[in-house]
Amino acid sequence: MIRPQPHQAILVLPHLRIQNANAIASPLTHGFPSITAFTGLMWALERKLAQAGVPLRLHGVGVVCHHHQEQVTQGYVRSFNLTRNPVDKDGSTAAIVEEGRMHLQITLVLAVSEKRAAGTPAALVQGQPEHMQAWAAQAGDILAGMRVAGGSVLPSRPVPGKRVRPWMALVPEDPVEAEKEFRQWRRQWLPGFALVGRDDLLAKRLQHLRASQPDATLLDAWLHAARFNHQPLPVEDGKPPATDGQVAWGDPLRSKGGGWIVPIPVGYAALTPQAHAPGTVRNARDATVPLRFVESVYSLGEWVSPHRLTHLGQLLWHAEAQAGAGGPDPALYRCRNGYQPAQAEGAGAAGEGEGEGAHAGVQDEWDDAEAYDYT
Question: How confident is the model at residue 257 (pLDDT cuts 50, 70, 90)?
Fold first, then answer.
């Protein structure tokens, strides 16, 4: 299993304008690219930096969305704006393949460390900003020619009072100083919302369902949390019932602010116990590496304003790989985030609603193997 590695600095690619990014994140979700698209971008960028002679290793990625515009028709029922493909060779009309597109303005925050040979002096040290400035500018130039979640990178526009050019900063080793620096950095990411993981809410929803449905599964809990479940609400204590007999309806599990809880794909689970040998699967993208068929892994996420984050670990997503041994547990490739609600980080008090925090008891008893769902 891949664990988050210690990083020395952050590389910030601010206010990227992405045109026609992939809006269909998985077979069951849409509206924002999957977090795996950004971890894949991180690895691709690291390889290109190595080819350019930039000695940086990328460990994690954070995503802050400033603006999004999904290319759909407006109305009660929405559909994607599709393009008509050219006619076939025989002149007949080509089939329309549904493709979801969206325009984005995002900031990417990458945790980096320096790759250096033994005996060579370090460049990521205090007092040598020229190396960091040159590396950040080179990373921005390389990213300008890459695809971000399938979309094209457009030139950044000036934003009053904001940095729009890539920049790097050292992360202090002292946790107190690191949090102080993070409070300064997060101001540059406002207004916007950061996507963080909330596996704990999926655990809490499953516990709630099993109280009335003992055979409820993780998929049932995920679908239940992904929609509005309106029901008659009881009369609040101290308030008389309505004289006209009307009953208030609402979702008791979706408190104020709960609309920021969203279903998200977080990785992939293997469908076969062993990987196929290179070149044995027809039409594979790369015939030189082993191939394994997978399906999407789902969990819950939350859009949080950066000013509500207290340290860098809450923003970053890290990739994990768990190789299956042929038993009941499949091989798992997923992204994990270090965000925890304030109640869980502090005294461990239970929140009143899902938008306010996780239940402390669930946090302790929840098996990590059940913190996701795949279908």
Answer: low
